[in-house]
Design a protein that fits this description.
Layout lengths: L2 E5 L2 E3 L5 E8 L7 E7 L6 E6 L5 E3 L7 E6 L4 E6 L8 E9 L2 E4 L3 E5 L2
Parallel strand pairs: 2-11
Antiparallel strand pairs: 1-3, 3-8, 4-5, 4-9, 5-6, 7-8, 9-10, 9-11
């Protein structure tokens, strides 16, 4: 079992930045691929960024170099640094831990980009 708690969401102007954090507990954090997803009402949850246990990263095409995912296995934390945010980035962002057939979700944090 893995418990995930996200923080760092909020309201930001277009072009602004936010830093989302996800703290994990309960299992061996370093063995999991950690992901950030986002979801808007009426749409499917979509992958934003992923980082494997060995540190390889993957980003969705819409990120366009604006986001950076990092992890600290000693602190059991994964961070999504978001820059140059756009109104289209408005969504609930979810932290996800995945290993084999096991998948765990956080409760989500709202990100709103608006002037």
């Amino acid at each position: 079992q893995v418990q995930l708690v996200e923080s760092g969401g909020g309201l930001v102007y277009p072009g602004g930045s936010l830093r989302l954090s996800c703290v994990a507990s309960g299992s061996i954090f370093s063995m999991y691929t950690m992901n950030w997803y986002r979801q808007v009402p009426g749409s499917e949850r979509e992958l934003v960024a992923a980082i494997t246990s060995s540190g390889f990263t993957h980003y969705a095409g819409f990120v366009e170099g604006r986001f950076t995912i990092t992890r600290d296995n000693a602190e059991n934390i994964v961070v999504l640094q978001m820059r140059n945010l756009k109104p289209a980035d408005t969504a609930v962002f979810y932290c996800n831990a995945a290993r084999g057939s096991n998948m765990y979700w956080g409760q989500g944090t709202q990100v709103t980009v608006s002037s």
